[in-house]
Amino acid sequence: MSRSWPVLQKDEQAEMRLFLPPEFTGQDHTLTLTGPAVIRRIDKHKQGVAVEFLKELKTFQPSL
Questions:
Q1: How, if at all, do strands 48-53 and 13-20 pair?
Q2: DSSP 3-state assignment of 22?
Q3: 61 vs 49: CA distance, rounded Å
Q4: CB hemisphere CA count around 31 (13 angstroms)
Q5: Which of 11, 52, 59, 60 is the most buried (most CB within 10 A)?
Q6: pLDDT digits 0-9 by tens, 11-64
Q7: Which of 35, 33, 31, 44 lies closest to 13 in space, CA to CA?
Q8: Do the Cβ atoms of 37 and 13 come closer than 8 Å?
């Protein structure tokens, strides 16, 4: 869920930031990856969005 979902529009490009907890990665801390995506569907009832990533996740940039 995104706090800014009401301002998102279908087919709009957005920068996605993924937070991967230690139990997903085996690291000591949460990893954050940032990369481009396109909003494909907006579900206002559930306050969520579906996105299509424009790059493979392994090419996303690590961020703080």
A1: unpaired
A2: helix
A3: 22
A4: 14
A5: 60
A6: 999 898 889 999 988 889 998 999 999 999 988 776 788 999 998 877 888 776
A7: 35
A8: yes
Unique residue bearing structure tokens 């139990």? 23
Cα separation, 49 vs 1, in Å, equals: 7
Residue 34's beta-bridge partner residues? 17, 61
Cα angle 60, 13, 1 (rounded to 5 degrees) comes to 75
pLDDT, position 46: 67
Look up residue 64 and give its two tokens: 């703080």
List the structure tokens of 61. Answer: 């940039």
